[in-house]
Design goal:
This protein has about 160 residues and is α/β, with parallel strands linked by helices. The chain has helices at about 55-65, 85-95, 130-155; strands at about 10-20, 25-35, 35, 45, 75-80, 100-110, 115-120. Strands 1, 2, 3, 4, 5, 6 and 7 form a seven-stranded mixed beta sheet that branches.
Length: about 160
């Protein structure tokens, strides 16, 4: 019986944090495999321990909680939103978990448009477009979940 080699998927996970002036903080994980979004694998994290408005702390909490789920497929690449502080923190968390996952961070300008990608992109040149695409999707998903959470807080109780 001839065995076919297993095809390893290029799994990318992107993380973003959203909050309203430090309240209702949420973290999200969006997943892309071989250039296609896997919406059934998206995750939403309520921020439990990080103080409101602490994006680095919230991202640290989300990544730590996610990496404890060894039953979830591990990514080849993690994309985070933020600058060097977020990147260094993410690299430390992945290293402490004894995992070999590349990490990049997308830096935004004052109009929230991607202006740079920090981190080791060696071997990932072809993934640059996917990095920007998944980062935008993570932001869209995070804002949508935050809006859903805050909308529920403002709806009046139904009189039953």
């Amino acid at each position: 019986i001839e065995q076919k080699p297993l095809k390893v998927k290029l799994r990318i996970e992107a993380y973003d944090i959203a909050h309203l002036s430090g309240k209702s903080s949420r973290g999200v994980c969006v997943v892309m495999e071989d250039g296609e979004f896997c919406k059934n694998q998206y995750k939403l994290f309520k921020i439990r321990t990080a103080k409101g408005g602490d994006d680095v702390g919230a991202l640290s909490e989300v990544l730590s909680r996610r990496l404890k789920h060894s039953e979830w497929p591990m990514p080849v690449l993690i994309v985070i939103d933020g600058g060097s502080a977020q990147l260094e923190m993410a690299e430390k968390i992945v290293s402490n978990a004894n995992l070999q996952i590349k990490i990049v961070s997308v830096v935004k300008d004052d109009r929230h448009k991607a202006k740079d990608i920090l981190g080791n992109l060696s071997g990932l040149e072809l993934a640059r477009a996917d990095i920007l695409k998944i980062n935008a999707e993570a932001h869209r998903f995070a804002i949508g979940r935050l809006r859903n959470a805050t909308r529920k807080n403002f709806l009046p109780e139904a009189n039953l």
